[in-house]
Design a protein that fits this description.
The protein has 222 residues and is of the alpha/beta class. It is built from ten helices and five strands. It catalyses: dCMP + ATP = dCDP + ADP; CMP + ATP = CDP + ADP; UMP + ATP = UDP + ADP. Pfam families: ADK (PF00406).
Length: 222
């Protein structure tokens, strides 16, 4: 598994190390931590349509976290007319994963701009390369990983009914996203599971019941 993405990891890491802006941002985040303002991060993972965004809104409301959706940041980048916009749009339409350095830079900027000390990061890391490059560049380990476990049939049903005008909520792209989730994102969850860091939630239940389980986890957080 590790060797699959090794070349990409090295390229992304060397890009980060060669970019003085990225280095400055990394230093700022580490100084925040060292300056007594420890940044807490929780990764929220699960398949497309498992209910991550829905529950993140509840977590923000009840527990004061800032919600950073990697997918939302990428969609905002497309809409901003950035030079990477067309490339990101094509990748999202294909249900594939955007290069780590792009997503991580957007997350870095949002964390610095957020000015808070606790963040839920929704839909990232999406693959092993994302995970390794984030750990290397940002140097913050998640407190834990919240995993919304849901059947593929239910996720597909929810996405087809979401009706938010997303270009990737069509049956062709949904099937591609589900395949990418199984092939690339589940290994990330398995990695964190092997470290005892995963809190798994049964996400097939109705949303209010799912939130009861989420609440129990956040209420007991140190
Ligand atoms: N527990 C639930 N039961 C039924 N429907 C749900 C539940 N949770 C969320 N939904 C609905 O399913 C759809 C997908 O939910 P949501 O956007 O939260 O998923 P997501 O995991 O963030 O998806 P994506 O990764 O594609 O952004 C939405 O229309 C939402 O209202
Ligand atoms: O870290 C990420 C997060 C998202 N993507 C791409 O965006 C779409 C939509 O993501 P949602 O989490 O469903 O909003 C996803 O299918 C990927 O194509 C990404 O590349 N990297």
């Amino acid at each position: 598994m590790f060797s699959l993405n090794h070349g990409g990891i090295l390229v992304a890491m060397s890009t980060a190390m060669d970019d003085p802006d990225v280095l400055t941002e990394k230093k700022d985040i580490n100084e925040n931590m060292l300056g007594g303002k420890k940044v807490k991060i929780i990764f929220v993972l699960g398949g497309p349509g498992s209910g991550k965004g829905t529950q993140c809104s509840n977590i923000v409301e009840h527990f004061g976290f800032i919600h950073l959706s990697a997918g939302e940041l990428l969609r905002a980048e497309i809409n901003s007319g950035s030079e990477n916009g067309t490339m990101i749009d094509t990748i999202i339409t294909e249900g594939k994963i955007v290069p780590s350095e792009i997503t991580i830079k957007l997350l870095q900027e949002a964390i610095i701009k957020g000015g808070n000390d606790k963040y839920i990061i929704d839909g990232f890391p999406r693959n092993e390369e994302n995970r390794v490059v984030f750990e290397s560049v940002i140097s913050i380990s998640p407190e834990f990983v919240l995993f919304f476990d849901c059947s593929e049939e239910e996720m597909e049903r929810r996405l087809l009914g979401r009706n938010q005008g997303r270009s990737d909520d069509n049956i062709e792209t949904i099937r591609k996203r589900l395949k990418v989730f199984v092939e690339s994102s589940l290994p990330v969850i398995e990695y964190y599971e092997s470290k005892g860091m995963v809190k798994k939630i049964d996400a097939t239940k109705p949303a209010p019941e799912v939130f009861e389980d989420v609440k129990a986890i956040f209420t007991h957080m140190a």
